C-alpha cells in the first residue's frame, strides 16, 4: 500500500481549480505528488496509523453554522474519516463560530509558518448524504449542527466519483446490525403516507448511512417558483427548466489599484423563455432532524431575471474550462415598450 494506480489517481486529482484563489498553505498541498502526498497525509492529517487514503478532491465547502461563508478545501477521504483541509481565510472570516480553531496560534500570521485548519468528520458519525439537483453538489450530515458540510463541486463527475468512493469505504465499516423492525398496525402503516408530498429517493447503504437523491417533484417545485417570479408571463404547463447549473457571477471592480474581479456564487436556471440567477441555500435544506425552526431565508432567492428575447448577444471567452460567458441584454427600462407603442399608434 498504496498501489501505483491509486497514487497516480490522487496526484491527478490534486489540482486547485484555476479560477479560485487559495492560501499559501493549501498551495503547498497542491504541489505535492505521489508518495510525498501520501506521506504528508499520514504525518500531518491521519488520526490513526492504519488508515488508508482513498480519494482526494478540491471543492468549495459550506458549513451549517456559517451558511454565508464559502471556502476552498482539499477534501481527503480515508478508510476512517473525511478530512476537510480548509483555507485559512475561513478562520479569519468567522473566528467566533469556529470553535475548533485554537486562537493561541493566531500570532503565527506574520511569520513564514503557514497554518491550516482541518475539520474531521468520522465515518462512524456519518448519518446521511443528500445529493443536490443534477449532481452539482452534495451535503454530508453527521449527528449535530457542527457536523453538516456541503461540498459545492459544481461538477457532476466529481460528485459521482466521490459518492462512489464513499460507498466503497463505508462497506468496510463493521457496524452493529439494525434491530428487527417492529410490526406496524394498519393505521400507522398507511396513515403517515397521506402527507400529499412524495419523499425523495433514499438508498440505505449496508453501513446504515442514507443516500438521498432528489425526485421529479423537486424540479416541479422549482419550475413553479420560477413561474411565480415571472409574474404570470407564461403558463406553467409549458414552462420547462432546460438547464440548472451552479456558477459564479463575475463582479468587475474598475478604478482600484489593479482592476480586480470577485466571483459571487449563483444558481443559473435557463427556461425556454427566460434566464434567471438565484441565490440558493445549499446547506439548510432539506431540514436536518435536529432543526428546531426553519432557516432564516428561502431556499431560492431571485437575484436577476431576463427574457431571452431581450438577449442581444453572448460573448465567449477563449480560455479553457471554466468558460466565461457574457450575456448582453437590450437595455430597455420598460420591457413591453415596443408592444405599447404599437397599441398607441394603431389604436384598436
From TrEMBL:
Residues 114-178 form the PLEKHM2 PH domain. One of its GO terms (cellular component) is endosome membrane. One of its GO terms (molecular function) is kinesin binding. It comes from the Eukaryota. Pfam families: PH_NISCH_C, PH_PLEKHM2. This is NISCH protein. It is found in: Cytoplasm. GO terms for biological process: Golgi organization; lysosome localization; regulation of protein localization. The keyword Cytoplasm applies. Residues 241-347 form the Nischarin C-terminal PH domain. Keywords: Cytoplasm.
